[in-house]
């Protein structure tokens, strides 16, 4: 990422500044931006938290996070020292007005020192319980008053259900205007997610066939091989539908299905995404069992190692009914997508980590070739791989070399790793850069969050009312419960194999430093 415009002075305030998200994601991302010369010349990072800590102690802790998570690798001492001098710590209780009075004084002192006004970005890297509290105190302290210079960033989850999302959005709106609110979803910062728009709307080859006439069905997969790790306490109150489907998968659905935008204006793009959610056919409470599948992983084997079941994880109730796998079949009632099914699935302890969108095109209406010509006929398929390998695969039929007319499936591959002589920035780098530029294109608007919750409410209510009697119902290392195949089988559809972008043995992208690319 290169700085193409001079950013104005910025004070970056992190509530929860001594926490894991700050250590693992935010500070490494800000450090990497500084190494790419993509931070303002005048900037400060104020970490606010409850524990007693000195600036030096915090900087040493954050240094360890940068060494472990920076895309440039271990930070050189001079580079880190130059960056670290911008980090300051403020101890304070998030529910005490004195914390915000002191914060306002510190921001004012920095502006006086710099001799100019500064943008103030308030990032809530805290437990969700604080999301509804911090904005109130910021508003009462007058720190949200300047609409052009103050912004607030909120992590997911944006509510626990529709009612809590509406309540949280009301709290945010009481102190901030919608233009000041940045609801962050790190999936939208990934290069390949953004490339969906470029692929669709910058290339006239595919957009004319991106509709019900040529597309048979669409699958969206976000698979994780890990379990709940250290998040058992949180996850057991959330589950896969709230943790992944309501935000990540719905965002991918919107980008794949949205109509062409008139311009790259933030609200124009966000309007098109909201239109998609409004077009999704409502799920009737009595039909939930026919279009939604849930599962929970039991013990199994991942990459040759035995792993415990979900109920054996730390922080998880031994009789937990929380789903770790969720799949949906959705339809969009509009001209472009009428009667084209969209299949969404996500789960933990699946065989591999993968996030991809698969566009399955319709088969040819008539096969002119003799039955013996096919060596494994498959309709054309387009796969956009988001992780772990970023790129695009197009599958089609080609003639096998030889005197006979024999066809077999082949792939045409585009890989970010192989095509560009530059590493992709971390998703948080992209999103923090956009917050500083006041560009809300990749961030969720209140109506989009609420529309997603409204769509999933019948599923949440049905699952809460009828507890599953078969959990755990899939082994770790499998692709989920057997029932998930039933979502597709009645239309003779099937979940695709995960695409392979980079062949085994290919060299991994080397980490580079500025000036050496």
List the SSEs and their pairings.
Blueprint (H helix, E strand, L loop, with lengths): L9 E6 L4 H16 L7 E7 L5 H15 L7 H8 L2 E5 L5 H18 L4 E6 L9 H7 L9 E5 L7 H14 L5 E3 L7 H11 L13 E9 L8 H7 L1 H18 L8 H14 L8 H4 E4 L1 E6 L2 E3 L17 E6 L11 E6 L6 E8 L19 E7 L3 E9 L7 E9 H4 L7 H11 L8 H20 L8 E3 L9 H4 L28
Parallel strand pairs: 1-2, 1-4, 2-3, 4-5, 5-6, 7-12, 9-17
Antiparallel strand pairs: 7-13, 8-11, 9-10, 11-12, 13-14, 14-15, 15-16
Q: Give the N-terminus to C-terminus distance in angstroms.
A: 12 Å
- The low-confidence runs, each spanning 5 or more residues with pLDDT under 50, are 504-517
Oligomer: single chain
CATH architecture of the largest domain: 2-Layer Sandwich
- CA radius of gyration is 24 Å
Structural category is alpha/beta
Strand order of the largest sheet: 8-11-12-7-13-14-15-16
Proportion of residues in extended strands: 15-25%
- Count of runs of 4 or more consecutive helical residues: 15
Give the biggest beta sheet. Answer: 8 strands, mixed
How many β strands by DSSP?
17
On the 0 to 100 scale, the average pLDDT is 89
Helix content: 25-40%
CATH class of the largest domain: Alpha Beta
């Amino acid at each position: 990422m290169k700085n193409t415009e001079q950013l104005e002075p910025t004070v970056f305030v992190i509530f929860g500044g001594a926490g894991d998200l700050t250590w693992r994601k935010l500070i490494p991302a800000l450090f990497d931006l500084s190494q790419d010369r993509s931070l303002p010349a005048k900037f400060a990072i104020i970490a606010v938290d409850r524990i007693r800590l000195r600036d030096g102690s915090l900087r040493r802790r954050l240094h360890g996070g940068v060494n472990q998570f920076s895309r440039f690798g271990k930070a050189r001492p001079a580079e880190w020292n130059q960056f670290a001098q911008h980090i300051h710590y403020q101890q304070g209780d998030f529910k005490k007005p004195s914390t915000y009075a002191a914060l306002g004084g510190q921001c004012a002192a920095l502006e006086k020192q710099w001799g100019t006004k500064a943008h103030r970005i308030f990032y809530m890297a805290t437990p969700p319980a604080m999301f509804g509290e911090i904005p109130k105190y910021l508003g009462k302290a007058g720190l949200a008053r300047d609409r052009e210079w103050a912004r607030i960033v909120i992590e997911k989850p944006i509510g626990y259900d529709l009612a809590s999302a509406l309540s949280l959005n009301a709290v945010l709106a009481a102190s901030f205007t919608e233009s000041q609110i940045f609801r962050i979803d790190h999936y939208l910062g990934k290069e390949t997610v953004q490339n969906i728009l470029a692929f669709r709307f910058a290339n006239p080859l595919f957009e004319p066939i991106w509709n019900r006439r040529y597309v048979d069905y669409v699958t969206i997969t976000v698979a994780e091989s890990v379990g709940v790790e250290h998040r058992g306490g949180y996850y057991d109150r959330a589950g896969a539908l709230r943790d992944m489907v309501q935000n990540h998968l719905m965002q991918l659905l919107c980008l794949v299905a949205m109509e062409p935008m008139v311009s790259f204006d933030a609200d124009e793009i966000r309007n098109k995404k909201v239109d998609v959610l409004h077009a999704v056919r409502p799920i009737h409470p009595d039909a939930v069992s026919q279009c939604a599948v849930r599962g929970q992983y039991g013990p199994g084997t991942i990459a040759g190692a035995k792993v415990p079941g979900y109920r054996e994880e730390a922080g998880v109730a031994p009789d937990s009914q929380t789903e770790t796998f969720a799949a949906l079949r959705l339809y969009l009632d509009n001209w472009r997508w009428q009667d084209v099914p969209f299949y969404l699935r996500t789960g933990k302890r699946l065989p591999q980590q993968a996030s991809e969108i698969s566009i399955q095109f319709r088969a040819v209406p008539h096969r002119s070739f003799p039955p013996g010509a096919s060596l494994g006929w498959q309709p054309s398929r387009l796969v956009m791989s988001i992780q772990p390998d970023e790129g695009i695969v197009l599958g089609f039929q080609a003639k096998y070399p030889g005197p006979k007319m024999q066809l077999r499936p082949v792939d045409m591959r585009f890989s970010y790793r192989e095509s560009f002589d530059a590493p992709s920035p971390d998703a948080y780098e992209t999103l923090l850069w956009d917050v500083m530029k006041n560009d809300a294109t990749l961030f969720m608007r209140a109506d989009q969050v609420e529309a997603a919750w409204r769509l999933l409410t019948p599923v949440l209510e049905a699952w809460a009312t009828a507890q599953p009697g078969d959990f755990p119902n899939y082994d770790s290392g499998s692709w989920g419960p057997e029932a998930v195949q039933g979502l597709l089988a009645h239309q003779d559809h099937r979940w695709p194999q995960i695409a392979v972008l980079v062949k085994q043995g290919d060299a991994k992208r080397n980490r580079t430093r500025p000036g050496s690319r």
